[in-house]
């Protein structure tokens, strides 16, 4: 049996959503210091660009890794329906307990795609362009063991920029 060539296919979609970067583990002052203008109580919006890449062998019978029409349908269910023209923090249950950073958005999209795809093992990458300057890439797997949040250190660990400040 001969080996099959491995090819990647990427499909692009855009959606608009708003959110507020605000951690329930921080007080209002610390949230403002950490997230800056992205902590605006009224939120702010983005026109996100999402690139979903699948990767796998080219089927000798179909000539495809995946039918692009199927990928379009999976992205419609996993991305467009739950996220487009929504307030992430108020309309998407996942973000009730998770800060709506672009990193967490990429993880959410990955997980949603895994649920709807016929062959989730083909999912290779979710890339989100939050702004022209800020991009996030998630390829699943590779997790770190999280330590329990030590709230006594929250007042000393500040960063003055956020991932979506531009």
Automatic annotation (TrEMBL):
GO CC terms: mitochondrion
E.C. no: 4.2.3.12
Catalytic class of the enzyme: lyase
One Pfam family matching this protein: PTPS
Cofactors required: Zn(2+)
UniProt xrefs under CDD domains: PTPS
Keywords: Lyase, Metal-binding, Tetrahydrobiopterin biosynthesis, Zinc
Family statement drawn from the similarity comment of this UniProt entry: Belongs to the PTPS family.
GO terms, molecular function: 6-pyruvoyltetrahydropterin synthase activity; metal ion binding
InterPro entries: 6-PTP_synth/QueD, 6-PTP_synth/QueD_sf, PTPS_Cys_AS, PTPS_His_AS
Species per Swiss-Prot/TrEMBL record: Papilio machaon
Protein name as it appears in the record: 6-pyruvoyl tetrahydrobiopterin synthase
Swiss-Prot/TrEMBL GO biological process terms: tetrahydrobiopterin biosynthetic process
Highest taxon in the source lineage: Eukaryota
Pathway this chain belongs to: Cofactor biosynthesis; tetrahydrobiopterin biosynthesis; tetrahydrobiopterin from 7,8-dihydroneopterin triphosphate: step 1/3
